[in-house]
Design a protein that fits this description.
Blueprint lengths: L1 H28 L3 H26 L1 H6 L2 H14 L11 H37 L11 E4 L4 H12 L6 E7 L3 H11 L6 E7 L5 H4 L9 E4 L7 H14 L8 E6 L5 H8 L3 E5 H14 L3 H9 L5 E6 L8 H4 L3 E3 L1 E6 L5 E3 L12 E6 L6 E2 L23 E5 L5 H11 L4 E7 L15 E7 L5 H7 L6 E4 L7 H19 L7 E5 L4 H6 L6 E3 L1 H14 L3 H9 L5 E6 L10 E2 H10 L3 E6 L12 E3 L6 E2 L6 E6 L2
Parallel strand pairs: 1-2, 1-4, 2-3, 4-5, 5-6, 13-14, 13-16, 14-15, 16-17, 17-18
Antiparallel strand pairs: 7-11, 8-12, 9-10, 9-11, 19-24, 20-23, 21-22, 21-24
């Protein structure tokens, strides 16, 4: 009885030791490939030392012939690593048996080592493919989120950085890394010197955000995901960035919200270093302004697209003391469009007599900043070609608004600020409720509502569409983008077919959701297409490269101040007269305007520029017809 009680604690202690040893061993094995390699290395060392020691004890003559104990260590190591080494062994039975044991043990150990290395490499490759490793970059652009906009943004950034020796784009989204990379290669192709790095993670999690090294980035672009209430996601990401502890200066952040009501919250979440675009407001302004001057969206695409012409800000000490009007003819390549003061105020198309200060930056329209240069002498103006007739006087117009969505009320209210008094607008939509109920007081527009399905040709004929000068086609509310675009295309085809027997009685501006559908829609020969998502993507890219351009584009689209206009060429040049673009610039200057280019009527529907020519050579011969238009910055 005493013996049982004395051995029981000892057994329990031994069991506990075995359990601790087993737990310790399991813990080391769980550390992964390095621990497994270490255990195999230890097993190899033990096997080699045991075989060498036993050979020394059991077969001293053979051991002496092989370099004593140290030599046996070396020979045992060779047999462990290479089974073929024992093929020429000679000696006593115990010696050969020990060499065979070393060889067989080595086979198991080496096989296990190969398996461990293979598994470890596969695991590391799998981990890398998951996109969970942290990048080490600086001066790169970070894109947070994934949507159709990412392809436009990446393509534009690659185009913008084409002249640089090295640039990087880091994308963080909750998608498979390989899928993102495959989609980028398929949709964009070669990005030149720009390398795109994808990482999988949630931008709302700080540990995931660290994967793309935001603290060392040049700029951060926040994209809205293709989900309902996408603005809420953007606001949460902006809050996450605002709450982050930054190492050094915080990079500037750009984002866009799709509903104007979310703009104040997004700007508050982003803080002073973030620029948040109102995508809804931008689309509305483009629709309204394009309704009055077809081709405006094409001009905006060229201004926002890095493959076209862009705005650059640069100091020009040689122009200090000269007036803005005189500076218009001072460049050989490039056209001044305004100035940015030392206080950061942007003045687009300032008065011609405004004197340029030494610390002002000139805002220049050019194809590339490397191509901007001052002229030794201004290009001569063909004075005889300048138009002397009075400018075209705007008249009251009749507009048809076909279709209806949540932007309709704002479009009508903004349109009221642009049109002449006595203008009329008819809403033709399949809505059961009268859309006019949400309208405020209008000063210039008389609005009527007709319940009508714009995709029904018979109902369009009953509307008397030939009596309208302008037509705006909106995508239907409550439909997915592809379905809405399909209905828009049918409406455009009916409208073009109805006008064919009557010549060209009206212009058509249409809202398209998917840029891919724009190419299909060209067959309808609509005068202008507003693809708001692409325009927003281009705007985000421009602001990520130069945040000061925000004030420039805001001024261009704001009804207050100077905006983009496409005005009749006969207001500037005598139709058919041979002149040059320097003459157009001078004619516009006399009217307090800045000429940026022109649009040729004969190439109205010819891609890719649709007749729009910005920043043309100033000295090249130029002849414009009465049907052509001049692209200017003007207050009205």
């Amino acid at each position: 009885m005493r013996r049982g009680t004395s051995t029981s604690p000892r057994r329990r202690r031994l069991a506990r030791r075995r359990d601790r040893l087993r737990y310790w061993f399991d813990g080391t094995m769980a550390r992964g490939t390095p621990a497994l390699i270490a255990w195999l290395g230890l097993a190899s060392a033990v096997l080699i030392v045991v075989v060498a020691t036993l050979a020394t004890l059991l077969s001293p003559r053979d051991t002496d012939a092989n370099g004593h104990w140290g030599g046996m260590i070396w020979r045992s190591l060779l047999r462990t690593l290479d089974p073929g080494t024992m093929g020429d062994d000679e000696g006593s039975g115990p010696f050969l048996a020990l060499m065979l044991a070393a060889t067989v043990g080595g086979i198991f150990i080496v096989s296990a080592l190969i398996g461990v290395l293979t598994t470890g490499l596969e695991g590391k490759i799998t981990e890398l493919r998951k996109g969970r490793s942290q990048i080490v970059e600086s001066g790169h652009t970070v894109i947070l989120g994934w949507s159709e906009q990412v392809f436009t943004v990446v393509a534009e950034l690659a185009e913008a950085n084409k002249g640089q020796g090295r640039s990087r784009i880091a994308i963080l989204a909750d998608r498979d890394k390989v899928d993102m990379e495959d989609a980028l290669r398929r949709r964009i192709g070669d990005t030149g010197r720009t390398r795109v790095v994808c990482r999988r993670g949630n931008p709302l999690k700080i540990e995931d955000l660290d994967l793309v090294s935001p603290s060392t980035a040049r700029s951060i672009i926040v994209l809205a995901p293709p989900v309902q209430d996408s603005d809420n996601h953007v606001i949460k990401v902006l809050l996450s960035l605002g709450a982050r502890a930054w190492d050094g200066e915080r990079p500037h952040v750009v984002a866009a919200v799709h509903h104007s009501g979310n703009l104040p919250a997004a700007r508050l979440a982003g803080g002073p270093s973030a620029q948040v675009i109102d995508a809804d407001d931008m689309a509305i302004q483009l629709i309204v302004q394009s309704h009055r001057q077809s081709g405006l969206s094409t001009v905006c695409l060229d201004l926002l697209n890095y493959a076209g012409h862009e705005f650059y800000m640069r100091p020009e000490p040689r122009l200090a003391g000269r007036t803005y009007g005189a500076a218009l003819s001072a460049y050989e390549l490039g056209i001044p469009v305004g100035v940015r003061t030392a206080a950061g105020t942007v003045l687009v198309n300032p008065p011609p007599g405004r004197v340029i200060a030494a610390d002002d930056e000139i805002i220049v329209l050019a194809e590339d900043d490397l191509l901007i240069r001052l002229a030794d002498e201004p290009v001569p103006v063909v004075t005889d070609a300048v138009a002397t007739a009075a400018a075209t006087v705007p008249k009251a117009e009749r507009t048809l608004l076909a279709g209806w969505n949540e932007r309709g009320v704002k479009i009508i209210e903004l349109l009221d600020a642009f049109v002449e008094p006595g203008s009329h607008l008819t809403i033709a939509a399949p809505s059961d409720d009268d859309p006019r109920a949400g309208l405020g007081t209008l000063a210039n527009l008389d609005v009527a509502f007709v319940r009508c399905d714009p995709t029904d040709r018979g109902q369009l004929e009953q509307l008397g569409v030939i009596g309208f000068q302008r037509i705006i086609v909106l995508g239907d509310a409550g439909l997915d983008p592809q379905h809405a675009d399909a209905r828009t295309l049918v409406t455009l085809l009916h409208l073009r077919d109805l006008e064919e027997p009557h010549g060209d009685p009206y212009s058509i501006v249409s809202e398209i959701h998917d840029d891919a559908n724009r190419e299909v829609a060209q067959v309808t020969k609509a005068d202008d297409f507003i693809v708001s998502d692409k325009l927003i993507s281009l705007m985000l890219t421009q602001l990520s490269e130069n945040r000061h351009l925000h004030d420039v584009f805001t001024d261009l689209l704001d009804p207050e101040g100077s905006e983009l206009y496409l005005k009749p060429a006969s207001d500037y040049l005598r139709p058919g007269a041979v002149a040059n673009f320097a003459t157009v610039i001078e004619a516009a200057r006399r009217r307090g305007e800045t000429a940026l280019g022109y649009r040729l009527h004969d190439r109205f529907h010819v891609p890719p520029d649709y007749g729009v020519i910005l920043n043309p050579p100033k000295a090249a011969p130029l002849t414009l017809t009465a049907d052509d238009t001049v692209i200017v910055l003007a207050e009205d």
